[in-house]
Structure formats: structure tokens, C-alpha cells
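Entry:
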Amino acid sequence: MLVEDLFPGGRGPVSPLFSILERQIREFGPAQELFVGVGPGSYSGIRIGIAAAVGLHLAQSIPACGISSFLGYPGDDYQVVLNARGSWTYASIGEGILMEPPSICSTSELLEKIRADRGVFSPDALEGFSASFAIPTASVLGRRIVAGQFTRLPLQPVYLKPPHITLPNKPPALRDLSEGPEMRPAK
């Protein structure tokens, strides 16, 4: 059985995921196996999904593995393009399997790779490219799993380039907590 439940993403608390998992387990019982989209995609979203799967795997001994998020788009022959902050991520899917795995490329390389005879999906607004807006879904991944159109991947995010982080201008001052928390007298 495949269960898909959608909730708003974006920045903020991820508690809806765990409420949904709890409700699904109550309603359908524990999963027999877990499959998680491991990217490329939303840095936080992928890591949260993997952490939830690892937690369920450890707590309930449920087998778990990753699956490429790029297989979560509808159809069997298509291309996926993601904006990769100054470059592009490209993958090609043929007959429902990854024909060209996700890779980083420049705009000129992307223009050489895109084939006009195959559809292009992207969860990003793309300037200069004709692409259908779409996001990968669990229902499409589930159909591929049932059909055997996937490769089992480790439960770790697919990173194509180092994570984009912003370092603070001045590192925060750290206190030595080895002697317990600082106590202040009540006023």
C-alpha cells in the first residue's frame, strides 16, 4: 500500500510530517518497507524525510532505502532541470529509469543536453527554457517502486555540490557548560 499525504512546505516547523506519520501508522499500521526520495531537491526537506525514515527503521526495524527524487515526475521519458544557484542540475529519464543521472552543468552545457523531442519538468521558474512546472510526488515514486523501475540508494542526501550556507560575520561566544548552567539570582 502506498500512502501519500501533502502538507505545506517552506521554511518553518516540520511537525506536520510527524503528525501525518503518526496518523498513517494508526490508520494503516506500521509500514512493511520505507522508500524516501533522497534528492536532488530541497536541502532541508530531503534531510527531514531521511531522518524520519531512519528513526522508523531503528525504532521499528522497518527496512528502508532511498530512491532518486527525479523519478517522481509523471511519464516515462522526460528531462528534469533544477536551478542550482548559479548553475543547473540536469537529469534524463527514459523508460522510467535514470538514463543520465543528475549532474551539475552550465547554461551552455544545459542547452546542449536538452532534447526538444522530450518533455522538461522543473520545480523552479526557468527563464529562457520551456519547462512544465512540477514537483516529484510519492504516488509516482510508488508506481515506479511497484514496477521495479528504480535503483535502491543509501539513506543519505544526494549532494551534487557543497551545501550553500551563510556563515555568521562574528562567531557566537561559547560558554563552558561543563560545570552546569549559569544560575542567576531571582529578582
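The longest strand covers residues 97-105.
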